UniProtKB/TrEMBL annotation:
It comes from Lentzea guizhouensis. This is Cobalt transporter. InterPro entries: CbtA_put. It holds the Pfam family CbtA. It comes from the Bacteria. The chain crosses the membrane at residues 12-30, 69-92, 104-124, 144-164, 176-197, 217-236. Keywords: Membrane, Transmembrane, Transmembrane helix.
Length: 252
């Protein structure tokens, strides 16, 4: 049953929903703290600014801060479901790789790899900034750079998996060492090849708020991507074992 794409996709959606809820809770309980501190810094600038500041807690705001928080949490859950479906699809397409591993082990390793490619690597080059940091006119440029690093990270993961498959005849220490060295070299090239972040950090932004936001954002992403890998593995592993146990044994 679990060998069908539909059953795998449903488990991916469920894993994405669960990990999305967990990530949304991290956003509410952890990331929201530095966001409020950064918004206070931004609002403190407005009397001396040019009149184009954003209202986050005043009477003139179009959407209340509470509604923004709830909407953001729902958005995280929706993203988690979408990522879970993509994750399950990629898992199904890569079944021929690492066949010597259990479904749980493969799923967890896959989740870690996705986290490294689409969250950790971009974070190392372009760490997330809280509100009150960044020039609105550079948004498109920053987005393009960020997506470029994400694509490079996915290429690194794909290349590492292909290299590991080609080295299956080698011993595990040799295979693991070769893949790790290749990944480290590729990551170094990406970090050096892409330009530095275009925006500077304003002097009035407390360093503690900046890094609390960056670390909590990374923790939120880790909860989402690694969580999908772990939950999907928990959902697919027992069912896969039952399917194999129920499969007819070839005679002759």
């Amino acid at each position: 049953m679990t060998t069908t794409y539909k059953s795998i996709a449903l488990r991916g959606v469920a894993a994405g929903a669960i990990a999305g809820v967990a990530s949304a809770l991290v956003q509410l309980l952890v990331t929201e703290i530095p966001i409020r501190a950064a918004l206070a810094v931004e609002e403190a600038r407005e009397p001396a600014g040019d009149g184009h500041g954003h209202a986050h807690g005043g009477e003139g705001e179009l959407v209340s801060r509470g509604a923004q928080v709830v909407g953001g949490m729902l958005g995280v859950v929706v993203v988690g479901i979408a990522v879970g479906l993509v994750f399950a699809t990629a898992y199904a397409l890569s079944k021929r790789w690492f066949v010597d591993r259990t479904p749980f082990s493969r799923s967890t390793a896959f989740g870690l790899a996705v986290f490294g490619a689409v969250a950790l690597l971009p974070w190392l080059k372009y760490p997330a900034n809280p509100p009150a940091v960044g020039d609105p006119e550079t948004v498109n440029h920053r987005t393009a750079l960020y997506l470029g690093v994400v694509v490079a990270g996915l290429v690194i993961v794909w290349g590492a998996s292909r290299l590991a498959s080609r080295l299956t005849a080698q011993s595990q220490p040799v295979r693991v060492t070769a893949v790790l060295l290749a990944v480290v070299a590729a990551v170094a090239v990406v970090l050096l090849a892409f330009p530095a972040p275009p925006d500077t950090i304003p002097a009035d932004m407390p360093v503690t708020v900046l890094w609390q936001f960056r670390l909590s954002s990374l923790a939120q992403l880790a909860t989402l991507y690694v969580g999908i890998g772990v939950v999907f593995g928990l959902l697919v592993d027992p069912a896969t074992r039952r399917a194999k146990a129920d499969a007819p044994v070839a005679v002759g």
